[in-house]
Amino acid sequence: MSLSPATGPLLYEGKAKRVYATDREDVVAVEYKDDATAFNALKKAQLLGKGAMNCRISALLFEHLEQLGVPTHYRGLYSDHWMMVRPVRVVPVEVVVRNLAAGSLCRQMPIAAGTPLEPPLLDLYYKDDALGDPLLSEARLDRLGVVTPAQLEAIRNLAFRVNDGLRALFGPVGLELVDFKIELGFTATGELVVADEISPDTCRLWDRAVADAQDRILDKDRFRQDLGGVVEAYGEVLKRVQGVCPEPRVYR
Ligand code: UDP
Questions:
Q1: Domain map of the chain by residue range?
Q2: Banded model confidence at residue 2, pLDDT cuts 50, 70, 90
């Protein structure tokens, strides 16, 4: 049996994943890499095992969301670091939902890290590395013309459904979902689905049982802030979610 499901050309290479065509038009293969990057790729490292860890965590979270009726691009796992997904036209907007203040919000506003945000805050960023993924206003998004007002409404609703679904999962296993980023895409039939990945690379997760502001971090902030124990922290997230999500289906 082949170790790689990629039977077609490389379609796209990002910082943490590669996307390949397969012999089926309606499926593409995503390879999760061990590369870690932060600060628009100014900081880089190889973290052995990170790719497989994020692939499995993403699969579990997609299974959970699908079970709740939240549409995603996920089709199933192929192997430890390969996931099969539906091809989508990615909306060039990064959608961030924040439950507690952290990261860029605290750098840009006078708000202390950890301040609860109720209702959760939704921020949109234009996905463009050369421009540094700038924060968008609704007027700027409208000017860009990449989504219609109706699509924006659908994006917003989907993002909050993802937030509700993830918080319901993480809360009982002692994980605080501080914030997360998702990317959305349109399938060939025009359905809006959650794409990309959902993992400790794209979510801030704090261990609810730990009070120390650094020790509680179980996400990519450990890499951003040079705290060490990155893969171990991701392993802790995996351990907690694998008992409460459906077992990832295998796609071959
Ligand atoms: N995030 C991401 N990719 C990005 C920017 C942010 O996955 O290119 C995630 C990040 O991990 C966090 C959330 O989006 O969970 C909000 O990030 P924020 O805007 O606070 O930016 P940061 O502090 O990471 O620069």
A1: 89-227
A2: low
3-state secondary structure of 242: helix
CA distance 195 to 73: 5
State whether residue 221 is helix, strand or coil. Answer: helix
CB 115 within 8 A of CB 26: no
Q: Is 64 in the pocket of ligand 1 (CB under 6 A)?
A: no
User: CATH for 89-227?
Assistant: 3.30.470.20
Q: Show the tokens assigned to 154.
A: 């659908």
Q: Are 176 and 205 in contact (CB under 8 A)?
A: yes
Q: Which residues contact 251 (CB under 8 A, 6 or more apart)?
A: 27, 75, 76, 77, 78, 84
- Ligand 1 pocket member 202 (CB < 6 A): yes
Q: Which of 159, 228, 171 is nearest to 198 (CA)?
A: 159
> According to DSSP H, which parts of 112-205 are helical?
138-144, 149-170
Q: How many helices (H) and strands (E) does the chain have?
A: 6, 13
For residue 73 the two structure tokens come to 């691009």
Which amino acid residue places its CA nearest to atom 7 of ligand 1?
202
Which atom of ligand 1 lies nearest, measured to the CA of 107?
Answer: 23
Considering only CA atoms, which residue is closest to atom 25 of ligand 1?
104
| Separation of alpha carbons 237 and 156, rounded Å | 26
What's the predicted TM-score (pTM) here? 0.97
Residue 1: is its pLDDT beyond 50?
Answer: no
Are the C-beta atoms of 100 and 112 separated by less than 8 Å? no
Q: Is the CB of 203 under 6 A from ligand 1?
A: yes
Rounded mean pLDDT of 192-208? Answer: 98
Structure tokens at 192: 């809006």
